[in-house]
Design goal:
By secondary structure, this protein is of the alpha+beta class. The protein has 15 helices and 23 strands. It has helices spanning 24-34, 51-70, 84-89, 91-94, 123-133, 179-200, 278-287, 316-332, 347-356, 367-372, 393-419, 437-446, 479-485, 498-501, 503-506, and strands at 38-40, 47-49, 74-75, 81-83, 103-107, 110-118, 142-151, 166-176, 206-209, 221-229, 234-245, 257-259, 265-267, 269-276, 304-308, 337-339, 361-365, 374-379, 385-389, 420-421, 429-433, 459-460, 491-494. The relative contact order is 0.11. The protein binds ligand 87F. Ligand 87F binds next to strand 11 and strand 14. Keywords: Aminoacyl-tRNA synthetase, ATP-binding, Ligase, Nucleotide-binding, Protein biosynthesis.
Length: 515
């Protein structure tokens, strides 16, 4: 029997009681609460997002806002409520989502004249006004974005950041005169989402296009960013950028038309795009370890924590002064640094505390460091310790933070790449040749189970070379699937999990396929 790994540290009483590889779900909740990212609320599926996480959100928001301002997207704040009459306008597109819509039906003790839905997304709230505001081609493109909360009363297993009943997001809604402009924007936004994940959160992602079955029903096509959680072996949708075509602008829906340059009436081409607080959950799942959070320096609210290490007869005041001076120097250079001055905790306790909170770099200053005009630095990601000279402290810290950011991404990328296989039986992300919807439905149906069916995530834009008729190396594939899957020259990424459990898929291995 495998012995349970003891993660709680005796000497400090800080730490986690569940290992990441031991019970991933419990580990995740514990990390979020102990690191002070979230608080559990008394409504199931609702969580309080605390300062430590809000700062991460704000850093991403600042980047994204700056980029979309460059794209001439305007800011807006639409209402939280939508009447059922307006919500019904979108009926065809939101079919299937209705059970998730939450309603306000009372004010005090009296029933409202009309029930009000709480927005699950902004289309129905925003598009009636696009219809009023857009008259002719001079009004186009129209581009708006809002940062807000939405409510979707999910019934499947809630999980902080990943699946909550109320969540925060940005939602962008744009209208163009031509499809070409809309197509270009879909990709431009997708690239910003990639940057958020890869360059800020150090999480590798796959950019691609959703299949017809997995796209938003109201969209002409949906592009997405897909991330991978090695511990669950499952893919997770990171953000979406939809081209809505003329579906919503059509006369029978929101009737968003304009006079084109030839004085002819035409419907606008629309896009909508969003990323949400789920980003934070993905980052925690990918980088966290048995000591707690591991924050990439670019999004860490504190990049450096300075800890005084007083020693017996040494001059404590001098050590505290040196810590304060170090913080001042680092902050002046734009580094988010702070000192833990609390005199009622030991340095050891503080080390564990800041490790739990994932601060990328710890600086310890003790009497020996004062004498040698140096500080001791400890990396959160790999535990490496080094002495840094006070003379060139800023440059060295900046370099270290860059290295930490880079190596977090590299190691996550390495883990993800190692899990992408042309294979159906292991706990893997599957890069599989794709045939048609019939097969897609079939795979989804046959792999249904408690950990979720193997549905296609997206068709990656980056496609490995493959020729018609080439057989792919696979540990196994059933004859039927193999036959149909290799017909296509497009590869789709499927999450692992259910395929592996599927006897049907596993049956009838007949061919070894080579890549
Ligand atoms: C839940 C309840 C009601 C998703 C819902 O992805 C409606 C919906 O329309 C709903 N869940 N959707 C699709 C949202 C599509 C779209 N909206 C704007 C986005 C990006 C931003």
């Amino acid at each position: 029997m495998r012995r349970r790994k003891k993660v709680v540290r005796k000497e400090t009483r800080l730490g986690l009681s569940h290992g990441k590889d031991e019970d991933f779900g419990k580990w995740y909740s514990e990390v979020l609460v102990n690191s002070e990212m979230i608080g559990y609320y008394d409504i199931s599926g609702c969580y309080i997002i605390r300062h430590w996480a809000v700062v991460i959100w704000d850093i991403m928001k600042e980047f994204f806002d700056k980029e979309i301002v460059e794209m001439e997207v305007e800011k807006c704040m639409f209402h939280l409520f939508v009447t059922s009459a307006v919500l019904q306008k979108e009926k065809t597109h939101i079919a299937g989502f209705e059970p998730e819509v939450a309603w306000v039906t009372k004010a005090g003790k009296s029933n409202l004249d009309i029930d009000l839905a709480i927005r699950p997304t902004g289309e129905t709230v925003i598009y009636p006004y696009f219809s009023k505001w857009i008259r002719n081609h001079h009004d186009l493109p129209m581009k708006v974005n809002q940062w807000c909360n939405v409510v979707r009363w999910e019934f499947s297993n809630p999980m902080p950041f990943i699946r909550s009943r109320e969540f925060y997001w940005q939602e962008g809604h744009t209208a163009f005169a031509t499809k070409e402009e809309a197509d270009a924007e879909v990709l431009e936004i997708l690239e910003l989402y990639r940057q958020i994940y890869e360059e800020f959160l150090a999480v590798p992602v796959i950019k691609g296009k959703k299949s017809e079955l997995e796209k938003f029903a109201g969209a002409l096509y949906t592009c997405s960013i897909e991330a991978f959680i090695p511990n669950t072996g499952r893919g997770i949708q990171g953000a979406t950028s939809h081209c809505l075509g003329q579906n919503f602008s059509a006369k029978e829906f929101f009737d968003i038309t304009f006079q084109n340059e030839k004085e002819k009436k035409d419907s606008v081409w629309q896009n909508s795009w969003a990323y949400r607080t789920r980003t934070i959950g993905v980052m925690v799942m990918v980088h966290g370890d048995d000591k707690g959070l591991v924050l990439p320096p670019k999004v860490a609210s504190q990049q450096v924590i300075v800890i005084p290490v007083p020693y017996k007869d040494a001059n404590t005041q001098e050590i505290f002064d040196a810590c304060a001076a170090t913080v001042k120097t680092l902050r002046k250079a734009g580094i988010r640094a702070n000192v833990d001055k609390r005199d009622y905790h030991t340095p050891g306790w503080k080390y564990s505390y800041w490790e739990m909170k994932g601060v990328p770099l710890r600086i310890e200053i003790g009497p020996k460091d004062l004498t040698n005009n140096q500080v001791r630095a400890v990396r959160r990601d790999n535990g490496a310790k080094m002495d840094l000279s006070v003379v060139s402290l800023v440059e060295q810290v900046k370099e270290l933070l860059d290295k930490i950011q880079e190596s977090l991404f590299d190691s996550a990328k390495h883990r993800q790449d190692a899990c992408i296989q042309i294979a159906l039986r292991q706990k893997k992300l599957i890069l599989a040749p794709w045939c048609d919807e019939e097969v897609e439905k079939d795979v989804k149906e046959r792999t249904k189970g408690d950990t979720g069916a193997a549905k296609t995530l997206c068709t990656p834009f980056d496609q490995p070379k493959m020729h018609e008729g080439t057989f792919y190396r696979s540990s196994l594939t059933c004859t039927r699937t193999l036959k149909v899957y290799v017909k296509s020259d497009v590869l789709n990424v499927l999450p692992r999990g259910s395929l592996q459990r599927s006897g049907a898929i596993g049956a009838g291995v007949t061919k070894k396929i080579t890549f």
